[in-house]
Amino acid sequence: MNIVILGCGRVGATLALQLEEAGNSITVIDSRNDAFVRLGNKFRGDKVLGNGVDEEVLRRAGIEKADAFAAVTNGDNRNIMASQIAKEIFNVKKVVCRIYDPLRETTFKELGLETISPTILISNLVADAIIGKQQTASTQQQGK
Amino acid sequence: MYIIIGGGGDVGYYLTQNLLRQGHEVLLLEKDNARFQNLSEELDQSVFKGDACEAITMEEAGARRADAVIAVTGEDEDNLVICQMAKKRFNVARTIARLNNPRHEQLFMKLGIDVTVSPTKSILSLIESELPGQRFVLLMTLKRAGLELLEMSVPPLSSVVGKQLNQINLPRRSNIALIIRGDEPIAPDGEVRVEANDEIYALVNREGEEELRRTFGTA
To answer: Can you tell me the ipTM of this complex?
Structure first.
């Protein structure tokens, strides 16, 4: 698959390497040059320096041929806007968006965006770790 | 009306003042503490400290009973999220967003933002109309009517020079609104004869624009 990733922070870089390892063709976008250092020497994909909500930058990153787009910058609003551009303007089939704020995540999930909230996930995992396995089933129910 | 404004920069501030003066109930949301302190000295209860993108802030601001939410921060992505949250989560009837990058207009409209205002675009139009030699300028678009307001300067060699308005074939759904000759405004009666260098203000839909250009010889 051709995949475009917006955001080369820890998650973006890890994701890029992981997906490339799995045999996909990756392009990473970040607004800061030094962010690409996180990709290391082994990364064979493309790096695009630019603003992820700018259509020209997305085009340069190959979004028109992309099978998937992931927005994992540290800004919820940037991720939300970029994901919607990918979905509504470029019709990318698979769009995944990281949103830290649980309330925003709920709203945009209802609007049809595929979203992942680290806040909720981590809270669930840590709660499980603290409360223990015997409570796991009911905790997970509540988390859902 | 009860209006919530997101973004306490200059635009937000002057907008708040103006709307208050017009008698509306307004709440300006500003997230930066220093700026908020500054604003509250002048605006008192009409400004609230908080991030308009946060649902909790909007809840506290009474977004549910707001008639309109206006997002005028300096970042298009923030303005987008403010308006989408307002509409989807709080059922606000009217959402208005400032667009810093005019190229985002299509996206905003697609996502259901009611009105977008691009200062860049407006200023560009105004500057264009001041430039010498520009014979044809799009001044503004009336979105709901699907019409454009055009300013045309009639070239001396145009075939319409000397013709009466009622002798000129105008495209359908178009209309001459006003003629300025020298400094004089002239009402567009059918018998008015077009002269070289007349400034003609016309309303036309997008399809008719090309035809209008050709007719008035400004193509």
So the answer is: 0.85
